[in-house]
UniProtKB/TrEMBL annotation:
Belongs to the GerABKA family. The keyword Membrane applies. Keywords: Membrane, Transmembrane, Transmembrane helix. Coiled coil: none annotated. InterPro entries: Spore_Ger, UPF0353/GerABKA_families. The chain crosses the membrane at residues 273-292, 342-360, 366-385, 397-421. PANTHER family: LEUCINE ZIPPER PROTEIN 4 (PTHR22550:SF5), SPORE GERMINATION PROTEIN (PTHR22550). This is Spore germination protein. Pfam families: GerA. It comes from the Bacteria.
C-alpha cells in the first residue's frame, strides 16, 4: 500500500480534503482531492471507474489511456499542491514515483447574460461572466482567427489568480503588448480578486483620478478593440475586462454609436460631450457669476434670480455645496441599496429633499434646476470610472470659482488640461490625436464617421498592419443591381 506523503499532511487539517486508498487486484492507488472544488461525478464515473476496470495496466499505460484531456504527471510537490488547489485529483501508486494529476474541477458560475452597466438597445446582448474560460470562449467565438494570442499568467501570492492578456498578432504593437505583459508579470500583491485591482496597479499614473485603461463588460467591444490593435486583460473571477492603450476621448464613446446611422451616432456623441462639459462647469459658473460677476447677468434673468435667492441665508458657494453633497448622498444611497429600494430612494428622496430645501429657503429654485440638470448630465458618460471622475471634478471647479470667479474656472481648467497632457496609457499620450496633433486620426473622435472611411486603423495605436481594407479595391465593387 502506498504511503501517504508527509507533505500532504498540511491538507488533512481541512475538512473538505479527502484522501483514501482504492483497492484493486494489485497494489492499491492513493487518491486525494478537495471535495469542495472537485466534481464528484467526473471523479467517480470517468476516473475511478476507469481505474477499477483497467487495474491490470501499468501506471504509465493507465495514464496514457485515461479518457481525460487535461492530465499530467509530476513529482514536484509544489506543482501537485497547486493542481490540487485548482480542483485536480491526485492519484499515486507504489510502482511509480510520479503522481498522476487529472482535471476534475467543479465549475460553478453565472450563465452568460445581458450587460448590466453598459446597457444597449441596439447590438449584441452578451456580457462577460466570472469564469475566465467562458470569457475566452466568447472572445474566440467572435474572433475565430489563428492570430489571436492569449498569454496566461498567474498573479497574487495567495489568490493565485489566472490572468489572460489577449491581442492579435500582426496588428497589435509589440511594445504595448510587452509593456502590459511586464507590468502584470511584475505585480507584487497577495490577493487579486477583480480586474480593477490590476488596473490600478499597472496604470501609468496610479495617483491620477482619470482612468488610463478602459473597463468594459461587453464582448463585442473587446473584439472591436482587439481589431484596432489594442490589448485586453481579463482575470478569473471578474466579469469585466480592461483595454489599453486608450485615449481620453474613448471614455466618452459608447460602443452603441457604431450600431446607429453615422449621423445619429455623431449627434448623440456630441450631446454626450456637451453634457459632460455642462456637468463639470454649471455649478462653478453659478458660483462665479453670483459672487463676482453679477453685473454680467442679463436684466431679463436678474429679477428671477433675485426673487429665488431673496430668503436664502447662505452665500452661493455654501448653497451649491449643500445641493451637490445632497445629490451625491442620494446617488450613493441608491447605489448601495437593493435595486427596487434604491430607485425609490432616489426618486422620492430627490423630490422630497428638493421641495423641502426650497421651502426652507436653504437653496433657490434656480440652483435646484442647475444641480438637477448637472446630475443628469453626468449620467451620460458611458464608462463608469470616468463618470466617477466627472462627479469628483465638479468640486475643485466650485472652490476655484469661489476664490477667483471665472478666472478661477480658467485656472482650474488649465491645471486639469496640463495634468491630462502629462498622462499616458501604456506609454501612449492620453490626449492623442489632439496632442500630439494627428489630423488624420481625428476621424473617429468628436463625430462617428461612416464606415466608408474606416479603411485604416487609428495611427496613434502604431499597429503593425494599419490597413483594415483596401480603399481603392472597395470602390471597384459594384452593387448587384448596377
Amino acid at each position: 500500500m502506498p504511503a501517504i506523503p508527509k507533505e500532504w499532511e498540511e491538507f488533512r487539517e481541512s475538512s473538505d480534503f479527502v484522501i483514501f486508498h482504492q483497492s484493486n487486484h494489485g497494489e492499491p492507488y492513493l487518491i486525494c482531492y478537495f471535495k469542495s472544488i472537485t466534481d464528484i461525478n467526473i471523479l467517480n464515473e470517468q476516473i475511478l471507474d476507469y481505474i477499477s476496470k483497467n487495474a491490470g495496466l501499468p501506471f504509465d499505460e493507465l495514464f496514457e489511456s485515461l479518457p481525460i484531456a487535461e492530465k499530467e504527471r509530476s513529482s514536484d510537490w509544489n506543482a501537485i499542491r497547486n493542481k490540487l488547489l485548482r480542483g485536480y485529483a491526485a492519484i499515486g501508486h507504489a510502482s511509480n514515483p510520479a503522481t498522476m494529476l487529472v482535471n476534475a474541477c467543479l465549475s460553478k458560475g453565472r450563465v452568460v447574460s445581458k450587460p448590466e452597466i453598459e446597457f444597449n438597445v441596439e447590438g449584441p446582448k452578451e456580457a462577460l461572466v466570472e469564469s475566465l474560460d467562458t470569457n475566452l470562449n466568447l472572445i474566440r467565438q467572435r474572433l475565430p482567427v489563428a492570430s489571436l494570442r492569449i498569454k496566461e499568467l498567474q498573479v497574487g501570492d495567495l489568490s493565485k489568480s489566472r490572468v489572460a492578456i489577449c491581442y492579435i498578432e500582426g496588428i497589435a504593437n509589440e511594445q504595448y503588448v510587452q509593456t502590459c505583459l511586464q507590468r502584470v508579470g511584475d505585480m507584487q500583491f497577495d490577493s487579486v480578486t477583480d480586474i480593477t485591482i490590476i488596473q490600478q496597479i499597472i496604470e501609468d499614473n496610479s495617483n491620477s483620478i482619470f482612468p488610463q485603461m478602459l473597463g468594459t463588460e461587453r464582448t463585442d467591444r473587446i473584439t472591436w478593440s482587439l481589431t484596432l490593435g489594442q490589448v485586453c486583460v481579463l482575470v478569473d473571477g471578474s466579469p469585466n475586462a480592461i483595454i489599453g492603450p486608450v485615449t481620453f476621448e474613448h471614455f466618452f464613446t459608447s460602443y452603441e454609436d457604431y450600431f446607429l446611422p453615422w449621423i445619429i451616432g455623431s449627434i448623440i456623441r456630441m450631446i454626450r460631450i456637451t453634457s459632460v462639459i455642462f456637468s463639470i462647469l454649471a455649478s462653478a459658473v453659478y458660483v462665479a457669476v453670483l459672487t463676482y460677476h453679477g453685473h454680467g447677468i442679463s436684466n431679463t434673468f436678474l429679477p428671477t434670480i433675485i426673487a429665488s435667492r431673496i430668503n436664502v441665508p447662505f452665500p452661493p458657494v455654501v448653497e451649491v455645496l449643500i445641493m451637490e453633497l445632497s445629490i451625491e448622498l442620494l446617488r450613493e444611497a441608491g447605489a448601495r441599496l437593493p435595486s427596487k429600494i434604491g430607485q425609490t430612494i432616489g426618486i422620492v428622496g430627490g423630490i422630497v429633499l428638493g421641495t423641502a430645501a426650497v421651502q426652507a429657503a436653504l437653496t433657490s429654485n434656480f440652483l435646484l434646476i442647475i444641480v438637477a440638470l448637472s446630475a443628469m448630465a453626468s449620467f451620460t458618460t458611458p464608462v463608469f470610472r470616468m463618470s466617477n471622475t466627472i462627479r469628483i471634478l465638479r468640486f475643485p471647479f466650485i472652490l476655484f470659482a469661489q476664490l477667483w470667479g471665472l478666472l478661477g474656472i480658467f485656472l482650474c481648467t488649465f491645471i486639469v488640461v496640463t495634468h491630462l497632457l502629462r498622462l499616458t496609457s501604456l506609454g501612449m499620450p492620453y490626449l492623442v490625436p489632439f496632442y500630439p496633433f494627428r489630423p488624420k486620426s481625428l476621424t473617429d473622435t468628436l463625430i462617428r464617421p461612416p464606415y466608408a472611411v474606416f479603411h485604416h486603423r487609428p495611427a496613434f495605436f502604431r499597429t503593425r498592419n494599419p490597413v483594415r481594407y483596401d480603399k481603392e479595391k472597395a470602390k471597384l465593387k459594384k452593387d448587384i443591381d448596377d
